Amino acid sequence: MSHAIRAEGLVRRFGETTALAGVDLEVGAGRVFGLLGPNGAGKTTAVRVLATLLRPDAGTATVGGYDVLRQAHQVRQVIGLTGQYASVDETLTGTENLLLIGRLLGMSRGDARARARQLLAEFHLSDAADRAAKTYSGGMRRRLDLAASLVGRPRVLFLDEPTTGLDPRSRTELWGIVRELVGSGVTVLLTTQYLEEADQLADEIAVIDHGRVIAQGTSEELKAKVGGQALMVRPADPADLAVVRSVLREVTGVEPDLTQYAATVPAGGGDVLPTVVRRLDDAEVTIAELALRGASLDEVFLSLTGHRADDGTGSDTGTGAGTEKGTGSGAGTGDGTELAEVSA
Amino acid sequence: MTTISAPAPLPTRRVSPLVGLRHTMTLAWRSLVQIKHNPMELLDLSIQPLMFVLLFTYVFGGAIADSPSDYLRFMLPGIMVQNALFATMTTGFGLNMDLTKGVFDRLRSLPIARWAPLAGRIIADTVKQAWSIALLLAIGMVLGFRIGTGPLGVLGAFALLLVFSLAAAWISVLVGVLVSEPDKVQIFGFMVIFPLTFTSNVFVPTESMPGWLQAWVKVNPVSTLADALRGLLVSGPESGPIVTSLLWGLGIALVFAPLAVRAVRRRV
């Protein structure tokens, strides 16, 4: 079985709102797939459809080889789900929460208890095992939630925004746990608003916006699509900013992104930096700061979704790829490799 | 049944009713085991009716009836009805809590019978209901209430009250699914059950009210149920109010169970 998750043309509407507008996904077995997008992009809806909690209006999907509509019961036997909000029963203790799941999965009392003890130890919750979950910290609760989704040793794990609302330390801790899980062969579909999280964990990332996959690839591929690097110039005298701006525009052909003191442009070609330096020198502009840095996934995301690029100051691809508006054509085709869409 | 080694698609399988029943009992356990951590919950269930019993017996009792103990005999069966109706709100409250906290999603992502989460909750709440009826009766007896019938009458009273609250629980389920947060279930309870139970013959005899109100009080199922319980506990069972109460229960279940199930399906 090469694909643990496969979705084709998933559509789901809620009244007037289209949460999923034709989503295609393919996730190889044993991979970590990141579904990256802002709030309301359709990430959670996609997970709920794949986890058999929600019926799609159109499209098909299989998880672990089973159809989410016709074989929902089988799908439920191979998945684990950790929701956007910690879905443990807060009035029960850690042990009881895991016991409940184990018993519901058909384990004997003894097996369920043993499994609960084992998972609590693995997730560093043994000391809190007999305390009600409502006394847990946010990080502990999230770990318990993750443990609960692992009681039945799922082959496919859905993590819907697993670290939203966690402090940095708990987040790093949870990332470590997810990495260990993947080592054991579980396929993970992770949704997140944090580019860093997708960057850290996912083998492959799909950027989703307005219910469509607008780009797909490894984080390196996605970064490469927006030209890779950005050049920031800060003149010593802010009055020179106008000159800097026109130089950058002439050299790169792109209107720079301006702040009060600095101008930034995507620097696609290799000779942009020396050319800019020479031209600014000719214009007798003293440079206080000049930096060339790799595009962060944040910039990739923003340029792909076009959310910050409405005024045309967003970065261009620098690769000569199409410059259609972020939510434009081709998004629903599932052919993620050519979808470096950037607003003009 | 939790492990499937062959990845090849299998024909759709369902949960057998027996296994579904086991899921239900496990989920009922889940709702009851929390009492172990919070034993006060058992008293919470009856604190309000207890206040009512004390206040009405000693503050209003002498004015409404000849003496507080006479009044207790008249009122206690009615208070038991009121208490049972308030207690049905637990079902909607807990369901809404599960829905808003994501517990319901977790349960639905498991390979368990679809009806088990709701059935488990209702069974657990029925156990709580039985406890609170017994507690109220015990308190009443401490204050001087005397059972005029016998063990069969008491058993009948329990059975009738439990059957009726099982039916009324569907209203609670419907509310629990429709409102956005658990507290609103309780607000609904206050807004509907308070007027409903006070415009009945629970606290004062019907004859003391204005004519237009009497007309309503006489058809109010709370009055009918209170009459049925008075018969079963005090004056000897009367088939009229018992049958009418059961018919009310049946009617409520027939209307609200499908509405509630539909609402659950739509919400999730």
Automatic annotation (TrEMBL), chain A:
What topology in the membrane does the UniProt record assign? Peripheral membrane protein
Q: What's an example of a GO molecular-function annotation for this chain? A: ATP binding
Per UniProt, the keywords (alphabetical) are:
Antibiotic resistance, ATP-binding, Cell membrane, Membrane, Nucleotide-binding, Translocase, Transport
Q: Which residues form the ABC transporter domain?
A: 5-235
Annotated InterPro entries = AAA+_ATPase, ABC_transporter-like_ATP-bd, ABC_transporter-like_CS, ABC_transporter_ATP-binding, DrrA, P-loop_NTPase
Question: Could you tell me which residues belong to the region Disordered?
Answer: 306-344
Q: Which PROSITE patterns match?
A: ABC_TRANSPORTER_1, ABC_TRANSPORTER_2
Q: What is its main location?
A: membrane
Protein name as it appears in the record:
Daunorubicin resistance protein DrrA family ABC transporter ATP-binding protein
Q: Which SMART domains match?
A: AAA
| Gly residues bias (residue ranges) | 315-335
Localization, UniProt = Cell membrane
Family affiliation: Belongs to the ABC transporter superfamily. Drug exporter-1 (DrugE1) (TC 3.A.1.105) family.
**SUPFAM superfamilies given for it?**
P-loop containing nucleoside triphosphate hydrolases
Automatic annotation (TrEMBL), chain B:
Q: Which InterPro entries match?
A: ABC2_TM, ABC2_TM_bact-type, ABC_2_transport, Nod_factor_ABC_transporter
Per the record, membrane topology reads:
Multi-pass membrane protein
- Which residues are in the ABC transmembrane type-2 domain? 40-267
Q: Which UniProt keywords apply?
A: Antibiotic resistance, Cell membrane, Membrane, Transmembrane, Transmembrane helix, Transport
Localization of this protein:
Cell membrane; Membrane
**Does this entry carry the keyword Transmembrane?**
yes
Query: Transmembrane region positions?
Result: 47-65, 130-148, 154-178, 185-204, 242-261
Pfam families xref list: ABC2_membrane
Q: Which family does it belong to?
A: Belongs to the ABC-2 integral membrane protein family.
Q: What is this protein called?
A: Transport permease protein
